[in-house]
Amino acid sequence: MDPAPGMGGASAPLSSLELPAEARDWFAMLKPRVITLVVFTGIVGLLLAPGPLHPVLALAAVLCIAVGAGAAGTINMWYDRDIDAIMRRTAKRPIPSGRIRAGEALGFGVTLGVASVLIMGLATNAVASGLLALSILFYVFVYTVWLKRRTPQNIVIGGAAGAFPPVIGWAAVTGTVDVMPLLMFAIVFFWTPPHFWALSLYASEDYERAGVPMLPVISGARATRLQVVYYTVALVLVSLLPWVLGYAGPIYGVSALGLGAWFLIASLRVLWDRQDPAGVSLTRDAPARWAFRVSLIYLFALFTALALDHLLSVPYLG
Amino acid sequence: MDDFPPPLSPAEAMELRRRQRGKNIALLVVLIGLAALFYAIAMVRFKVS
């Protein structure tokens, strides 16, 4: 994906992992950075769900969420290999650089996707398995094939794909979908646009060259900065709902307020970035780069607060 | 008949064998992992039910 909606940036350089070069390429196809965030939110969904789940089955569920996300990322890289070759940020990926053949990548992705859905069904239940399948299909067909090259709203709608993991985690335990997982879904959904638009502000030349209609390419940097602020305000409001509705306690509430204020300040710095009359940044988009990093920390910290709030079980009025 | 690719040099052949061996080992690890996972899931589900 370029950035895959729903979670995080380009695939990781794996210099820290001592894997042979070829294995490293296959691993990179899975977009490990994206998986990190997907797995994390999925685990929080598992933790918050009422009822027990045997640790082995929980581990299998987490593995399936990770592999399913990797499968979607791999199929996305297969489909986007033409534009990946054009964009500087993605040109060194295994397919455009010729280290992995396109057909092999597609086979790898489809195999992993099917296996993850089947094993999820065996380990947990049909609801979790169905949601995992839906998230993979949504990412591949709705975001990658349909929206990404057609509309600047690509990551708004496509972002839903990255919002599924906490719902899948919850469903793995309960076999149902409730209000709380839908709130977690909404948080990730509203987090995605400011996260990716911050990135696209400083990568817009790449997107323009590849013909991807990201918001800065179509509507300009100034309109994009405004949208970043709008969506961050919406995100902060949505992030408070679990507390307001009594599904989370004060640890989460205070964290959501503090983190939300931090993200909002980062977004306002993007809006107030020094720019020329055409809206082009005079600071090489330093505030957008900062906001992108803040957005990543924000989501990790918010979900950590949600998990801590639940685990510490501080009494609250709900 | 000259559609055949040129024969591999000894170094290329050795590299090819090395890569094939690597793939085989990776596949073996994946298969053992899958078998272990299926076994663990089956055991837990039997116990739970």
Structural class assignment of chain A: mainly alpha
Question: What class do helices, strands and sheet pairing of chain B give?
Answer: mainly alpha
Roughly what fraction of the amino acids of chain B lie in strands?
Answer: under 5%
| Alpha-carbon Rg of chain A, integer | 19 Å
Mean pLDDT of chain A: 91
Largest β sheet strand count, sense and barrel closure of chain B: none
Number of helices of chain A: 14
Give the overall shape of chain A: flat
Proportion of beta-strand residues of chain A: under 5%
Please trace the helix and strand order of chain A, writing H or E for each element: HHHHHHHHHHHHHH
According to DSSP, the number of beta strands of chain B is 0
Mean pLDDT of chain B: 86
- What is the helix fraction of residues of chain B, given as a range? over 70%
Percent helix of chain A: over 70%
List the helices and strands and how they pair.
The complex is a heterodimer of chains A (318) and B (49).
Chain A (H helix, E strand, L loop, with lengths): L20 H9 L2 H17 L6 H25 L1 H6 L15 H22 L2 H22 L6 H5 L1 H15 L4 H24 L1 H7 L4 H5 L1 H24 L5 H22 L14 H27 L6
Helix pairs in contact in A: 2-3, 2-8, 2-14, 3-5, 3-6, 3-8, 5-6, 6-8, 8-9, 9-12, 9-14, 12-13, 13-14
Chain B lengths: L9 H39 L1
Structure in words:
The complex is a heterodimer of chains A (318) and B (49). Chain A has helices at residues 21-29, 32-48, 55-79, 81-86, 102-123, 126-147, 154-158, 160-174, 179-202, 204-210, 215-219, 221-244, 250-271, 286-312. Chain A has 318 residues and is mainly alpha-helical. In chain A, helix 2 packs parallel to helix 8 (160-174), helix 2 (32-48) packs parallel to helix 14 and helix 3 packs parallel to helix 6 (126-147). With 49 residues, chain B is an all-alpha fold. In chain B, 80% of the residues lie in helices and 0% in strands. Chain B has one helix and no strands. Chain B starts with 9 loop residues before the first helix and ends with a helix. The model of chain B has no long low-confidence stretch (mean pLDDT 86). The interface between A and B is medium-sized, with 12 and 13 residues.
